[in-house]
């Protein structure tokens, strides 16, 4: 496919990298020639310097023959105007990133329907929603939901004390009478594999598994038998930005004891007026003595979402050192995203990945309903709806000749998880090299 991307920032660069590796014809437009040169030097993309909201520039980029148009600059107005121009050129799929314009609320003045845009995405909202999911899944560092939340995809880090440490996948399969889940991938030393029966789970591994939502309590007990369930878990949120407020609002509704910390007194006043039950605390995130007085030593979760990666990492480590059970950090820089977990931070969330995951769903073929990206491995989890013409209809799961580098985690078909029929949902874990084969398989 021919894909035109406006904006060479972190999201734009990541999309160029992923899509060009898959063989798509990618053109990148940005005002900053330095960003363009970086992309052209490292990636197989064509760069064009200029304003992405200019019809002249878009015509130079051959917009008339473009299949997918993605505008992800840092300016909402440029992204929306560029998509409106793309609509005039009859581009089939149009996507815009927006951060400041309200478009989700009921009766919003601007909505994707009114603008004729297929996807309006706010990275801040995506990050906040992901933080909330991880906070509500004790011990997990990665969480994605499929089939309207019924199927959970979870990532766990395995320590030497884990009951799973030292077990082979075959031995783990013998526990399925009590614990219903399937391990679809293991990451070890920055390499992700799809494990087979004799592969062993080792100390330091990260495992990814599929499970039904109703089975999570039993799985949680297996993975963390010493964890105590509280009626009202306590969470500290560092940073009173839109992300912090959105997280606090959602966790209030989940019956968490929420405490939001920010050093700006004026911002604290504004945040306090927006939240119902959250305690707002006006201190520095590094003022650990003040935080201890507020109960950081009994915190179940500490979430750092300031605008600085370094502050988020430092404050998360301080909170962990002084008794917080789990720490989550917002990390924008790719080089810090892989470093933070090795320092002891339980989960890191990237705005770049959160936004890209939502966008890639519109690029994928074969009836993709939802999609999640896995940091560090470029793997993806994809949910497909089986089409009437699909070759897998009526074939038992064990007899399906599935592409190498991918595994079917779940087939949702009433109470059966073995035989696919038209309209079934299939959730698949796929390594990077198999993505195009998977799309063709379900197309």
* Total number of beta strands: 21
CATH architectural type of the largest domain = 3-Layer(aba) Sandwich
> What's the average pLDDT?
88
State the major sheet. 6 strands, parallel
Strand order of the largest sheet: 3-2-1-4-5-6
Principal-axis shape: globular
SS field, number of helical segments = 16
CATH class of the largest domain: Alpha Beta
According to CATH, the fold-level topology of the largest domain is Rossmann fold
Percent of sequence in beta strands: 25-35%
Helix percent band: 25-40%
What oligomeric state do the depicted chains represent? single chain
The CATH homologous superfamily of the largest domain is termed NAD(P)-binding Rossmann-like Domain
Quickly count the domains: 4
CA gyration radius, whole angstroms: 22 Å
Which runs of at least 5 residues are low in confidence (pLDDT < 50)?
A: none
The N- to C-terminal Cα distance equals: 15 Å
Overall SS class:
alpha/beta
Task: Give a structural overview.
With 443 residues, this protein is of the alpha/beta class. It folds into four domains: 2-121, Rossmann fold (3-Layer(aba) Sandwich); 127-132 and 231-354, 3-Layer(aba) Sandwich (Rossmann fold), CATH 3.40.50.720; 137-223, 2-Layer Sandwich (Alpha-Beta Plaits), CATH 3.30.70.1450; 361-442, Alpha-Beta Plaits. Helix content is 31%, strand content 25%. The chain is built from 16 helices and 21 strands. A hairpin with a 2-residue loop joins strand 9 and strand 10. Helix 1 packs across helix 15, helix 6 (123-135) packs parallel to helix 9 and helix 6 crosses helix 15 (351-360). The radius of gyration is 22 Å and the shape is globular. The mean pLDDT is 88.
């Amino acid at each position: 496919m021919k894909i035109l991307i406006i904006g060479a920032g972190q999201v734009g660069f990541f999309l160029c990298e992923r899509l060009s590796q898959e063989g798509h014809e990618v053109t990148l437009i940005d005002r900053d020639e330095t960003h363009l040169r970086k992309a052209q030097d490292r990636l197989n993309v064509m760069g064009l310097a200029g304003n992405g909201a200019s019809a002249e520039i878009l015509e130079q980029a051959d917009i008339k023959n473009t299949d997918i148009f993605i505008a992800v600059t840092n300016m909402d107005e440029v992204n929306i105007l560029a998509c409106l121009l793309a609509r005039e050129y009859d581009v089939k799929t149009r996507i815009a990133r927006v951060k400041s314009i309200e478009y989700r609320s009921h009766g919003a003045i601007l909505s994707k329907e009114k603008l004729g845009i297929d996807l309006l995405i706010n990275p801040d909202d995506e990050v906040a929603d992901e933080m909330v999911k991880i906070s509500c899944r004790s011990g997990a560092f990665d969480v994605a939901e499929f089939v309207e939340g019924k199927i959970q995809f979870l990532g766990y880090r395995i320590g030497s004390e884990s009951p799973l440490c030292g077990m082979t996948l075959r031995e783990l399969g013998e526990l399925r009478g009590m614990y219903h889940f399937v391990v679809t991938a293991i990451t070890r030393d920055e390499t992700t594999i799809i494990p087979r029966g004799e592969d062993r789970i080792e100390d330091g591994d990260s495992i990814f598994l599929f499970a039904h939502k109703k089975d999570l309590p039993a799985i949680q007990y297996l993975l963390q038998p010493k964890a105590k369930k509280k009626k009202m878990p306590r969470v500290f949120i560092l940073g009173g930005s839109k992300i912090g407020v959105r997280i606090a609002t959602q966790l209030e509704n989940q019956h968490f004891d929420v405490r939001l910390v920010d050093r700006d007194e004026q911002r604290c006043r504004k945040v306090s007026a927006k939240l119902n039950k959250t305690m707002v605390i006006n201190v520095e995130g590094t003022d650990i003595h003040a935080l201890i007085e507020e109960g950081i030593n009994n915190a179940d979760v500490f979430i750092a979402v300031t605008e600085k990666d370094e502050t988020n990492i430092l404050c998360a480590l301080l909170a962990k050192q002084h008794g917080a059970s789990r720490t989550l950090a917002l990390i924008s820089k790719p080089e810090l995203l892989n470093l933070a977990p090795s320092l002891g931070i339980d989960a890191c969330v990237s705005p770049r990945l959160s936004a890209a995951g939502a966008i890639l769903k519109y690029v994928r073929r074969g009836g993709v309903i939802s999609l999640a990206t896995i940091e560090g491995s470029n793997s993806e989890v994809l949910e497909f709806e089986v089409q009437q013409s699909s070759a897998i209809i009526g074939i038992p799961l064990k007899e399906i000749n599935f592409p190498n580098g991918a595994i079917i985690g779940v087939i949702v078909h009433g109470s059966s998880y073995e035989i696919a029929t038209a309209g079934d949902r299939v959730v698949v874990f796929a390594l990077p090299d198999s993505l195009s084969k998977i799309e063709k398989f379900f197309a």
